[in-house]
Specification:
- This protein is mainly α and 362 residues long.
- It has one domain.
- A three-stranded mixed β-sheet has the order 4-3-5, covered by helices on one side. A two-stranded parallel ribbon has the order 1-2.
- α6 packs parallel to α12.
- The longest helix is centred in the first third of the chain and has 62 residues.
- This is Transmembrane protein.
- It comes from Paramecium pentaurelia.
């Protein structure tokens, strides 16, 4: 046997192709198994019809636009508020500066004046208001009516006579108050005093009615309201000056007899009571403070055995907030006011005009 035939027989060539084919078949099968494991999971995608997608997108778009608009308007409003706040703040600071400058100037004016001279000037001006009333109470007609009424003071005729006198004389003093509170008739010294009355330094103590409804100017106080200013200056004018001088003049009158004196005192006290009612009614609706803005004092009417009137001041505060305790309240005048509505309306209008006159000079 030759070498070539031996080699051929032992190489097993007849068997080799089938073995390769079998092996390839197994590898192919294995590849198929492995490739089957690499397949992606079968997700089910839910399709959205186009007619449903469009409204949803439109709604979302409008919602976003609305949000942007709201944000824009908010920013715009804030910018405007900031601008207005700064302008108001600057204006208030300017007003405060002007008030301080005027306060300093008024103090200098008062300090350079003689105290007795100042009091004399103001008293003379007040006398121009109250003297016609005092003269009316000294006429022969008034004296005769006083004597007649004393015979039967509780009769209907006597009561009606006193009411007529009261209405007439109340009108008279209010007319004079209105006339002499016009700017060209008010002394400059009184104008200065009226302005200074707005400051806490001039009001260490105040009536409860006033202290519960307003603050006074201090070094750092921004301008207070118009009605609060009116309340302060009218309290100074009516209750600190006018009424005190009216009482003094009534005590210095020459009376013909006790009937005349009693009738005069009745009229004077009744007019004071009406002024207090007009004042309280005008300012009663002002918002009240949680605590009084300053220390308190109380005015009280005192009548001597000789029927002379005086006002005393103490710390026993009337919780009914009367500016002068002892004057007749509104309840006492109800009958008079109900029967004379035109008169009541007239004196209310005159009182408001007086307050406006006083405030216009500040």
């Amino acid at each position: 046997m030759t070498i070539n035939s031996y080699s051929y027989n032992h190489t097993n060539r007849s068997y080799r192709p089938s073995r390769i084919q079998s092996r390839n078949s197994r590898e192919f099968q294995k590849y198929q198994e492995d490739s089957s494991q690499l397949q992606l999971p079968n997700f089910r995608i839910k399709s959205t019809p186009r007619e449903y997608q469009i409204p949803y997108r439109t709604k979302r778009y409008h919602l976003n636009v609305s949000r942007i608009k709201v944000l824009f308007l908010y920013i715009l409003a804030y910018i405007r508020w900031s601008r207005n706040y700064r302008q108001k703040r600057v204006l208030k600071l300017q007003q405060l500066k002007q008030i301080r400058q005027k306060y300093t100037k008024c103090l200098e004016t008062i300090s350079n004046q003689d105290v007795l001279l100042c009091k004399g000037i103001i008293k003379q001006w007040i006398c121009n208001i109250i003297d016609p009333l005092i003269k009316s109470c000294s006429t022969k007609q008034f004296i005769l009516q006083s004597n007649e009424n004393s015979k039967n003071p509780n009769s209907e005729n006597s009561i009606q006579c006193r009411q007529n006198q009261l209405m007439l004389l109340t009108n008279q003093i209010l007319n004079n108050m209105e006339k002499f509170t016009e700017k060209d008739k008010i002394p400059e010294l009184f104008q200065t005093s009226l302005f200074l009355s707005l400051f806490k330094s001039q009001n260490i103590k105040a009536p409860l009615f006033v202290a519960k409804r307003t603050k006074y100017y201090t070094k750092n106080t921004i301008k207070i309201g118009i009605y609060q200013e009116k309340m302060i200056i009218s309290e100074y004018f009516i209750f600190r000056l006018l009424i005190s001088n009216l009482i003094e003049s009534s005590n210095n009158m020459i009376y013909q007899n006790i009937n005349h004196k009693m009738q005069c005192k009745f009229i004077i006290l009744a007019i004071m009571g009406i002024l207090q009612i007009l004042y309280q009614d005008y300012f009663s609706e002002l918002k009240q403070l949680d605590q009084p803005s300053t220390e308190l004092f109380q005015r009280r009417i005192k009548i001597s055995k000789q029927q002379d009137i005086s006002i005393i001041i103490d710390d026993n505060i009337d919780q009914e907030e009367s500016l002068i305790f002892g004057l007749h309240s509104k309840k006492h005048f109800e009958n008079l006011m109900e029967k004379n509505q035109e008169w009541l309306q007239e004196i209310c209008l005159k009182f408001a005009k007086i307050l406006n006159n006083l405030h216009s000079i500040l």
